[in-house]
Amino acid sequence: MAISKNGTILIPYVNNELVAVNESSVAYDMDKLDYITQINILRSTDDGNTFKKLTLDKEGCQCCDTATTPGPDGEIYFSWRDSKRTNALLSDYSDKYISNQSDSEYVDKTALQQGLIEVPIYSTTRDIVVSHTLDNGSGLKYSEPVKVQKLE
């Protein structure tokens, strides 16, 4: 949580929601069904009496928390782990090894290998990113998220 110099309260949080395929209904086609994590911010300008939800990132990491700090320039800075699927590839169905876990703890691997079920498993790129307010901490305008480190 951060409180800007003008008194705006900004509370970032991780929110897991089921994505509606066409924005009005949930599909049960496993190729289209997906869980997504949003990085949201609750914003209050009336000392916390009411809050409005804003979304910073529609593809955040579902298991990592956010960090917030006011900057010396009056802006509020946010950091989180991103989980973009821009360059994601559908995993090979024939390779379902999950490290240090027995097959019995998951969907029966034999059924998967026999083609009785198919489970889309995606690889994602996860980076730590930073974004900040662009309006002296008012929380209505934000910079684009920037990766903390770029690997070459």
Automatic annotation (TrEMBL):
Domain of life of the source: Archaea
Name this polypeptide is given: BNR/Asp-box repeat protein
